[in-house]
Structures are given as C-alpha cells and as structure tokens.
Amino acid sequence: MVCDDDNDFIRGIFCPHVAVLCSDKAQEICRKNNLSFSDLLNPYSRLTDVNFKDANGSTINVPNLQIAFSNINSQPLSVTKERSRLHDSVNITTEPSNIAVKIGGREITIPENTPWFTKWRRTFLQIQSVSDHEYTKHFLGCIIVISSSDEEQVSILTQQVQQSILPNQNQSPKWFHTTILRYYVVLHESLNPDLTIANKIIETLQSAYGHSSCHLLRLNSCKYPKTELTEGIWDYLNNSFNLNDSIDSQDQSGEFENSLNSVDSSLIHPLSPQEYNKSLNDESKTHIQKIYGAYLDENDHNNIQDLTKHFVSRSLIPYIESQIQSLNESVTNKKGVSRSLLSATKRWFSTNKPTAAAVPATVIYTNDSPELQTRRLADLYMILGAWSLAFPLYQAAKRDFSADNAWMLYSGAVEMAAICALMCPSVCDNRKAIEYANESVLTYLNTCRVPQFATRATILFCELLVRREMYGEAAKMFIQMTNEDSDLRSALLLEQAAYAFLKSQKPPMLRKYAFHMVLAGHRYSKAALRKQSLSCYQQAYQVFEDTHWILAEDHIQTAIGRQAMFLKHMKQASEAYSKLLARASSQPPEQQSTILRDYLNIKLEYAAEKNDSSIIDLALPLIDQKRIKILLNADSIITKEHSFDEDLLDTRWHKMEEDLITEARGIPPLIFKPTLAFYGSNDTIRQLLYVDELVQVQMTLSNPLNISLCIENLSLTYSFDKELNLVEPQVLDELLLAPSSTTQVILGLKTKSTGILSINGVQFSLLIPSIMSDDTAKKVINGWQRFEMLSPIQFNVQPQTSLMKVDFIGNQINTLIGEMNIIKLTLENAGAVPLHKIYVSTSIEDSFFSESNDSCKNKNIRSLLIQIPPNSKKSVEFCFNSPDTEKFSLDLLFYYESQIETKKQEYKLCRASWFMTAKPCVRLSASALLANQNSETLNLKTIVHNLYKGNEVEQVKLKQVFLYSPEWTLSKKVYPQGSIKNLDQQQSCHLFLQACRTNKSGISKINFDNEQFPHTDMCEKFVTITKSSSKEIKMPKFDRHKVQTEVLKCIDLVLAILWQVVIKDHSNQLRIICGIHRVALTKLNLSVAWPELGCLDASKNIAKPIGRLKIFGPDRNIHPYDGTPLPNDVTGLLESPMNRLLNIAFSHSCTVLHSFNDKKMCIIPILIILKNCVEYKIEVKIDTNSANCSKSDIDDEHFCWIGVINPKPFLLPVSATHAIRLYAAVASQGCFKISSKLDILARPYPPAQNAFLSQIVSSSSLLVIKDPKSEVTS
C-alpha cells in the first residue's frame, strides 16, 4: 500500500507490534476463510482518533494509529527465501502506465510510478529481522486466541507466552518489556447458536484477567461459502507475498513453500557480497486466485472491528501509558548516573565520532540500564508518532552511546533522531537533520558493517527528502548506498536517484538522470532482471539520442538490443540494432562484427516467429533515399558514364529537342513538352515504358561500419500484374563494401510483355560474419530494402516499337584547338519496327556526318539519309573541329521516328555528351593585299605560330595550305621557297603566298611535303563548312575593264593550314594528331587570326602597357629629369636609358633592281647586327609580328618579314656582338624602312623585376626597290 503522507508512511513502519498465539481449533476456524487470525485483524488494524497520555499526563492525539499483528511463532526467513522474496517482489510487478514530461526543451516518456520499487521496499522492511539495538519492532503484548470448544488451552497458551519472556536474546519472539500485555479472545462460530460454553469461558477469563483483557468474537455467520471473487479488504493477499501466510503453522497448504522451491537455490540475496548470473527474468508462476473471508458476513466484519477497537482502547493504550510512566520514572531517577567514572568523563568532554576502523564496543548494557531505558521510552513515543517527545530522548541516548563507543546503538539513535527531526521540523532544522541522516547511514555501513540497516535508513530518509522536494540530497543518499555487494539493491537505488535528478528542475539535470539510469540498467542486467534493465536503457536513450555522443548511444543501443533479445522481443531488438548499424561508430571491428551477427540472427528468429520465409527487411547497407534516380529508357543514353548526371536536366537539351521537332516537322510545335530523362518522384501518372526497354535505377550504398560487407545477388525487387518471369532484372553477382565506404550501384530491368510494372526496392544476400576466424562455412541471409519514394514507381508497359542504340569509338577527351576529331558511330535498331527520319542536333557548328545532308535550315542540325530495319546496324562518322575554348561540351541529340506510328509517342531520342578540353597548339594569322596595284594577283601574308607549352609536343609540322574562294586560286609560289622547317615551341613561320584570279569556284591547295594525307576530303569539307558558316557578303561582280572601289576593298576567301603533331599520352604512347586552322578573309589589308589571343591561356599572362598615371590636375608633358614642361612634338623623342641598351645596325643593299613582271616577289637578305653597349649582360629577343612595332613613315603594305623566327631570348655579354640574318619580302617598287614591323627588345640580366623594353633603332636604314621595266612618274 502506498502511503498518502509522511505520517502514514512512517507509522506504517514504526508502529506497535502485537503477537498472536492461536490454538489449533482457533486456527481451523480462521482457515475456513483462507486467513490466519493476524490476517483477519490486519484490515482493521488502523484506528483513527486515538489518544494517550505522556509522562506529564498531557493527552496527545494520534490521528492514525497502525497496529501490526504477527504470529508469535513466526521465524526469520532463511537466506535463500529472503533472496527469492526480494527478487520476486521486483520481478512480478506489472507494467505501469507512462507519462510524458517536458524538461529542458526535451519531452521524455517515463513510468507514472515505480511499483516494483515500492513492493521491494515493503518486502525489504517486512523481512528485516528484529534487532536488539532498537525496540520499535519488539512485541508489546500477545493476543491469545482459543475457540469456544477448547477451554483447557488457556493455561497451556499462557504458559507458552510466559516461557518466551525468559531472557534469550538470540531467539524469537522478542518482547518490549518483561511485563507483557496479555489479551484473550474466544472464537465462536455463529452457526452454533449455543453460547453456553463460550459465555462460561469468557466469564472465567474476565474474572481472572479483567474485562479489559478478554473478548468474545463471533465468526463464520454464513452457512455456505462465497463462490465468486469480489473486491474485498483481503485482495492484496492475491497480488503479493505475505509473510504471515506462509508461517502461521506447519500444516498449512504450503503454497508459499512451493513457490520458493520453484526458484533456483543459487540465487544470491541482494545484500549479500556474492554475485550471481542466473537468469530469473521469466515471469513468476501465476497463483490461483483465492477467495478470502468466504464465511464472513457484515456482522462478522463489525465484530472484528469491535475487537480491535476494544483491544487498543481498553488494553493496549493503557498498557503503553503505564510503560511510559514507568520508563520515565526510571530515566528521571537515574538521570546523571553513569555506568562508570570513565564513561561520565567521556560523555562530557569527548567528541567521539565513529570511523570505519573503529573497534567494536566491549560495553554490555544491562536490561535496566538508563541508556536502554531512555531508548525504550524514545521508541514508545516513536511508534505512537510523538516525534517532538522522542527527539530529545534520542539525542540523549546518542550522546551516551557515543561516549561508550556503542556504535550500533549510536547509529540507531542517530537514525531515529534524524527521522523525528524530518517529521517535526520545529525540533531541528533540515540541515542538521540531513547531517544526522548521513551520519547514521555511514556508521551502519562502514563502522558496524550492517548494510541492511544502512539500506533501511537510506530508504526512509530518501522518501522523506523527496516528499520535501530535496531531490539533490535524496539522490546523493541513494548513490552512496550503491556498491558491489548487491546488484539488485544498487539497481533500484540508482534508478530512484535518476528520478530524483529528473525531478530537480533548478537546474534541470537531464544528463545526470540519463547517466544514472544507464548505471541502473547495467545493475539490473547483472541481477538478471531483463525487463527492468530494458526499461532503464530505453529511458536513458531519450536523453542521449541525437546528441552526437556516439559511444554513449552505441552502448545504450547495444544494451537495449541484447536485453530485448533475451526477453524474446525480437522486433524491439531489431529496431535497436538497426539504429546501431545505421551510422558511423567508434566501436572496434570485432565488436561491430558481433553486433552485425547478432542483428542478422535476430532477424532470422523474428522471421521464424512470424512464419515468414520470404526475404527480410534489413538495415544494411544504407541507401540514400534522397539520391535515388530512375533513368527512363537507359539505352537512349550513349555516353553511359554520364547516364545519371544532372546535366540531363539542363535546358539546353530542351532547346535542342525543340529545334529537332521543328526541323523534322517543318513548323515549331504548338505546345512543347520535353521528354523526361528521369522518373519524377512526384509523378501521379504512370510513365510509359516499352517492351525490351531498359529502366535503370542508380542508388548510393553506404557501409558505416568498420568491417566489410559482402553482398551477393544484388537486384531490383518489383511487382508485375502478369507473370514475374516476364521481367528480366539485372543481377550484380558480388559487391564488397569496404569499411566506412560509399559506392554507387546501377541496376536495371526489362519487361517482355505489356502490363503494369512497379519497382519496390532492392534485394540481396548478405553474408553473416562467422564467429571463428577459420570458419569456411558460408552463411547468408536474404534481405531487401524498400525505396521510400513519395509515390510508387510504376510504369505502363506498351508493345515493342523501334529502339535505337548508338555505340561509339575513337573519341579523345583531351584535344588541341583546331584538332580534327573523328568519332565512329554505330546505329542499331534493337526494336521490332523500322526507324527513319534521323536528325542529329550538335553543339558544335564545325562538324558534319559522313552520311549527313546539309539541307537543314538550322545550322546545328544534321539529317542522316538512312533507314534502319529491325535488328540492323548502320555505321557513320562524325567529324568535328575542336573549338578555341579551354573546356567545352560536345552534345549530340538523335531524333528518330518509327515507320509505324503509335498514338502514345511520335518520336524518340538518344543523347550523348562528352566533357572535353582543348589546349592551344597553333595560331594562324593572315592578311591579303593586291600585288602592285594589280587586281589579278593577291598577296597573302601568313604567320603560323607554335603556342604549345609542355613536354608532350616538341614540333609542329605544316602539311598543306588550302584556299577556298569563288574568284581566287593559289599559285605554286611560296616564300620562303623549299621545304618548310618544323616549328619548335614558341617559334613562328612567316609565309608569303600568292593567289591569282580565276572564274572557277573551288579549293586550291599546296603541299609542303611529299607525304600523302589520307583525310584530304575531310579537310576540304572543314574548309567548305567554314565558308558556309561565315557571313554572306554581297560583292559586285568583277569587271577587269572597270575600276570599282568596292571590288578593290572586299574579297571572299578562306585560307586554311593543315598541321600535324606527334604527342605522348599519359602511358607514353605516341599519337599522331592532325588539325586544321582556318581564317575567313573578307577585306584587304585586314589581319585575321585564329584562335584569337583572348581565347588563349597564354594571353592571360601578357602584361598590358599602363598609361601615364594621372594624380592631380590635367595631364601634361614634363621633362623626366628637370620637370619642365615640354611641347607635344618633343615628347616622343625622349626615351629612357633602358631603351638604349643595344646599338643596332643593318647590313643590306641600299638599292635593289627587280622586275615584278617577271617575278611577283622580291626577296632581300638583311643582316641585323646587335652590340651590347652597357657594362652588364643583357637578354635580347626579336619580334617581327608585334602589335607594338613602330609604323613606317613610308607605305609598308607591300613589305613583310618571312622565314622562321625564333622568339626565344638569348644572352649578349658585355661588349659582345651578335648577327641575325632575316629575309624581307617586297611586292612592289618603292622606298621601305628596314625597321618596319621589327621590334627588338632587351632587358638587364638577371632580369629580377625588369621587363623587356623596345630598343631604339636608327631610322636612316632605308631600302629602295626599283623596277627598270616600269615607268616611274613623279
């Protein structure tokens, strides 16, 4: 029974105890009701409004007086029975209801109460043996019970009671005083109307012992026993063990003995220092529900109540009052009288405190010693609830016992003083009361070595502290009583300490609550109480969950899983292990292997319980549900490595698809809906799927463990509204997931029939880790995992149609700008219907197909003039020129239609995408001008520069030059003549070409070597598409007899250079690369280059000249040395000293005679002489095509440098001279400045932070070209 307040709780423990002695016939009368006489009285043992007089004669009211009736023959339980009694009191308790509390922003579910602790506490206090150091449980009196038919038993029972009073401290019963209270009860069955004998017996007893000590009790008024269970005052006997029931007599039913025999004898008492591991977690055997009081009616109950009232008011209370008076007189008369002079001295001057190493006391008190008499008087007040009267007596006794080193008696007195202080705060403050409480527990525990009394004190004190909301102090006392002596006791007290921390709101102590709940769960587990252990761990996990305390979470989840497994709660164990395996952990691999093995075995056992032989839902490997992708018609993706890229969702594919539809149909679609590449998770309409089309699912599998996972036979799980064998899934035979790794897996399936297809998840076989390292037996478990999509993955499978698959070979990802690339494509119709109307949209304009038709309106679309029957293949080549972009994407989108139209889908798509790079290697620049004002001949100045930087390419070889124009054709004259030298890195080649006017449109070319190039047709195709891709220029028709200014200024031609390099790839394999650079020339005297400098990486590092810095006021020209203003025409004459590091001279013929009618080009050798005129080394380089070259005052359109120029700098020592031979090409007579288009740069060596600066060249070096056949007019 749970007490409502402190008084009821303490009075239920410290109350007057009365012995009961029954004759055999009296026992038979009680046993008809399945009750002993003490059980008969116990429901009526609580009396309200009882008064007694203290030693001063003052009347004190006792609101609720509890009397404890016990069999006089009851003996202490054996150790084995005590162990089982305490263990079973915890184990048989039913589950309480749960409540949710919010603490610190977190909601926690806890039991509404802890009935197992309440029952254990009550059992512990019941079975505690009577001690000699206190008198609260000693019998005050004895009720002698006889029946109306055994008058001769009175003297026998009286003599038996008298014999028990003889002084023998080691035997039961123990009496409060040698003068005990005797009360006589005569039982008479009401069915016997003859009261003659009963009245005679009661009169005899009254004459001998007085009317206040005798009572006639009439029972069993019912003729027939009750057969139905009704809620009554003895129902508690069905729900708990009762000490008195089992030992009233030797001839009882023996039910309690049988229940004890069912418990293994190896159980250890929780207070014992031994340990035990025997599992006692099974629920106790269900006892048969008994009917108590079957022959008792309402009158009988009233008679019993009258008996207890008569006994207490007429006999017990007067006896107690007399004892109070007697003890008070004894204590008062002997007050100040010490047992010895030594004890008196110690009492007044010593401050003895018990210690753990204290020597046991040798003092022996006589029964009438003042110290014990004081203790008796205090205990009398204690059992009556007179706390204020008992407290000073306990304090006096405490001092006496401390002076005599009687530590057992001392700790008992301190314990009772602390209880009185807590029950009556007016006698002592709480701080002092808590000190008393701690002192009594520690003395019991460390000095006296009696943990049972330390446990009792802890239970009582903590209950009182909790009721006073002193949760911190209660928790401390609970914790200090936990040790290795008893797992059960430690578990219960740790659990109560955890709840004390939980109730402590200021501040909240959630983590302390959880930590001590984990400790309680561990001790419950050691005590073989699996259910309570599981409950503790589950409560603790609510606090540790999502705190990222990985080790703590792992420990708790492991414990939950194992306890649930022992309890056969397989679902709960599976959930715990699933959480444990679903994330990274710091556990060692061996422990994780054990956990995984246990988890898989639990899954197998759980499936066996449900009689489910199908595959089992497993938690490993982890599937990232947010990254699941379903690719529709996987065969439509040509580049498989990019099948599941997000790039497929880019809007450029939608634009390309719309352009293809417009080209195929001739008009744009009214409503355009792009074809979906992926299955949408929010789709409510089933996607279309055709027979034999491949659907692929990409998923990310993770292994969070520190051990490898071996997976076999990985495939998709599905459902089909027809036979399942009509679906062909792809199976991954074996997959090894390394520890703490993540991998992507692609699985697919095809259908062979129409219907409704659903994809549900993935199934696999997981290898169970073996216990022995040398175990070669392979044990697997068939498991699966569900896809947690927002909607089911369903497809509407349609009949087979055309299906194009595209394979390719020959594509290189890393290319050079201008490289000619050839991709060989194989188009296969894997469907059952012929396909036609094949269109291809590409992202690169400089491209074409070997089978393409150039009649498409959209320049990015090519039409393939082929039809492919079912199960047939066609091969085509796709050629493209690498653009002048460092990184680019090559996209191909194929559009095709079935020859047999379907209503569901009019066309299908195939797509490919390559992410490529292009490095700069060659740069081509060219310009055109008329030769000697003659419109029949065109001079083409061409510069080819090797831009490559790296070790892969050494030289660039020039193979051919192409010219495509409707009016011009290349002549065979090339300057310089002879073979063209290969270009090393950073070298340039200057070519001077001539073109003649013609009436035939076409491509003309010049070979630089005798080798035959196999792809000449492809080169001409590239030149042609360059012409077609250039802007249309409307030019007037040429008339050689009329001078037209527009004709003289505009031209229309494409100049192309075919080059070749040998490159080493990463595996040191040689690869020959051919490229073509093209420029479209549309105006005379305009230089055009490809690729442009802004497109090259090298151009990013070119320093741009910085103009004059303007700080304040308008910019003005000042002298660099004295700061005086200079006129504008003088500013250009001033140069820095760094511009005069060299003396430059030219050696050449000053006048050259040349007939331009015989030879269109005049080549003049020129020697450039450089001399270092400073006193340190200088670094020199020459540039013949610099944008910073000074312009000649004379028209230099017909003057240029030719030949191979090495742009690499060279060193010129002090006073050294260096000569360089170059060639100048002149196309017309006139006077030319040699320094035209020539830039000589120098800087000091070592360079440090100096940049190259242009050197001043003398302008007096002029070249005069004369044509003797021409008439020169001034």
UniProtKB/TrEMBL annotation:
<dbReference type="Pfam" id="PF24544">
    <property type="entry name" value="Ig_TPPC8_2nd"/>
</dbReference>
<feature type="domain" description="TPPC8 third Ig-like">
    <location>
        <begin position="913"/>
        <end position="1079"/>
    </location>
</feature>
<dbReference type="InterPro" id="IPR057651">
    <property type="entry name" value="Ig_TPPC8_C"/>
</dbReference>
<dbReference type="Pfam" id="PF12739">
    <property type="entry name" value="TRAPPC-Trs85"/>
</dbReference>
<dbReference type="InterPro" id="IPR058538">
    <property type="entry name" value="Ig_TPPC8_2nd"/>
</dbReference>
<feature type="domain" description="TPPC8 C-terminal Ig-like">
    <location>
        <begin position="1141"/>
        <end position="1243"/>
    </location>
</feature>
<feature type="domain" description="TPPC8 first Ig-like">
    <location>
        <begin position="651"/>
        <end position="814"/>
    </location>
</feature>
<dbReference type="Pfam" id="PF24546">
    <property type="entry name" value="Ig_TPPC8_3rd"/>
</dbReference>
<dbReference type="InterPro" id="IPR058541">
    <property type="entry name" value="Ig_TPPC8_1st"/>
</dbReference>
<dbReference type="GO" id="GO:1990072">
    <property type="term" value="C:TRAPPIII protein complex"/>
</dbReference>
<protein>
    <submittedName>
        <fullName>Trafficking protein particle complex subunit 8</fullName>
    </submittedName>
</protein>
<dbReference type="InterPro" id="IPR024420">
    <property type="entry name" value="TRAPP_III_complex_Trs85"/>
</dbReference>
<dbReference type="Pfam" id="PF24542">
    <property type="entry name" value="Ig_TPPC8_C"/>
</dbReference>
<dbReference type="InterPro" id="IPR058540">
    <property type="entry name" value="Ig_TPPC8_3rd"/>
</dbReference>
<dbReference type="Pfam" id="PF24545">
    <property type="entry name" value="Ig_TPPC8_1st"/>
</dbReference>
<feature type="domain" description="TPPC8 second Ig-like">
    <location>
        <begin position="853"/>
        <end position="910"/>
    </location>
</feature>
